Amino acid sequence: MKDTPLSNCERDFLLKAIQEKKRLDGRQTYDYRKIKITFGTDYGCCFVDLGKTRVMGQVSCELVAPKENRPNEGIMFFNIELSPMASPAFEQGRQSELSVKLNRQLERCLRNSKCIDTESLCVVSGEKVWQIRVDVHLLNHDGNLMDAASIAAISALSHFRRPDVSIQGDEVTVYSQEERDPIPLSIYHMPISVSFSFFQQGTYLLVDPCEREERVMDGLLMIAMNKHREICSIQSSGGIMLLKDQVMRCSKIASVKVSEITELIGKALENDKKARKAGGRCGYAESIPLERITALKMDETPMEMMDVTERANDIVQKAEVPPQMVPSPVVPVPGVGQVGQGLQNTWGLEEEEEEEEDENENENGGSDNSGEEQEGRVSQMEEEKYEKEERKGGDVVEISDSEEEEVVILHPEKPDKAPKKTESSLHQKGAASTKKRQK
């Protein structure tokens, strides 16, 4: 997986800030980031934090056969592992160009500089020697890997203790830490790498570049030096042409930085030694701050717990007695509701609603009575009309679908001439004529 490239806006912003002698994290041109050195539980385990760049160095040893051309010297082996956990640009199980370059630079810095007495690692000449293996694991990548790796490697070598051995004839006995105290390595000096990044063909110079500054730089110069101002190795990359004055200026800056870092390593080793001897916190538990282990930890607030009962009783006795019933407040505007604990839920319309209900009830009652009276009047009027019709002798036709509906009374129209003979009258006349014939 490839890393996300910088946009043109970010690149222009970084270059413009460097021209104005400003950096993203607020440092000056020659300032290093904060360096923190901690040691693990076992000897030879070291953690180095250079800003957000975190590196772990682990030293181990084993008895092996020596090289044929150097039978009296031990073997030094270095390995740098770029874990995908540190950056998405690193791939597992494949050596990249960066890892090869860092391995070679670390070998030049530590092995070719003869900082460790390899002859003291010989157990039996030509048969058995100690092979010291230095593994550097990159835990987080934020730029300047070489400086962090060199600090972690030399600190781990200084902290490492190899087991003690004894030789009786052809037999070699290796003692554990409980049987005999382990023996430290003999280190002559501490070479430390200091990186310089150049911008705009060497016009601008920065010390300890971060990851974003490394992306926009034109060239890189790494100088490995010890506190005695002895240059152990120099490597330039990027294809830029540097002047003699620029290299001398960088070497002077590196001498100051190396002396400060060497003093810091010495203090870290001394503090770890005192902590182990006193039985205090050391190793991995000491290297991790408490905030990372207990993320929800809160500072305790001191409180006086003396005479709490008496004070509480005094407060209760002096306090006013709360009212038993809370009166309902008067709502000034009708239609406004009030809801609260201990209060009546009023909407300001109770009296008006009661009055309206009473009026409605009265109206409903009155309407029922008036309806009955009206029905009685209608029935009387119908009876009177029916009687009148009967007196007059007219026919009355009543049409009604149901008992609940109103009764409709139809009066027959009175013809101007004589009324037409109905079927009943014709039937009566026909019957009378037949009787006469029979007689």
How would you sum up the major sheet? 6 strands, mixed
Following the backbone from N to C, one meets helices and strands in this order, namely: HEEEEHEEHEEEEEEHEEHHHHHEEH
Please report which band the strand proportion falls in: under 5%, 5-15%, 15-25%, 25-35%, 35-45% or over 45%: 15-25%
Annotation, overall tally of beta strands: 16
Mean of pLDDT: 77
Range of helix content: 25-40%
Number of helices: 10
How would you sum up the global shape? elongated
Radius of gyration: 55 Å
Q: State the low-pLDDT regions, or none.
A: 417-423
Structural class, by secondary structure, is: alpha+beta
End-to-end gap: 138 Å
Reconstruct the topology from this structure:
Blueprint: H1 8-19, E1 35-39, E2 45-50, E3 53-64, E4 75-82, H2 97-110, E5 122-124, E6 128-140, H3 145-159, E7 161-162, E8 165-168, E9 171-174, E10 183-184, E11 192-199, E12 204-207, H4 211-216, E13 219-225, E14 231-237, H5 244-278, H6 284-287, H7 290-293, H8 308-318, H9 350-392, E15 397-399, E16 408-410, H10 423-438
Parallel strand pairs: 4-6
Antiparallel strand pairs: 1-2, 2-3, 3-6, 5-6, 7-10, 8-9, 11-12, 11-13, 13-14, 15-16
Helix pairs in contact: 2-3
